[in-house]
Specification:
four-stranded antiparallel β-sheet, Alpha-Beta Plaits
């Protein structure tokens, strides 16, 4: 299974990373977000635009 990694900006704490994971999970996307590394790892190959849209709606941005 492939993995995609993105840099995320705008997170202020661990809860921010958890919220991103939950929002992506609600859309059927498996993800692991790290506040300390400012990264988002996505399993599989969902559309990048969909990921960006969900993260943006959550109040964060992908660099």
């Amino acid at each position: 299974m492939s993995k995609q990694t993105y840099k995320v900006s705008g997170m202020h704490c661990v809860s921010c990373a958890t919220m991103i994971e939950l929002d992506l999970e609600d859309a059927g996307i498996k993800a692991k977000c790290s506040y300390t590394k400012e990264t988002l790892e996505i399993e599989g190959s969902p559309e990048k635009n969909k990921i960006i849209e969900i993260v943006k709606k959550s109040g964060y941005s992908i660099k």
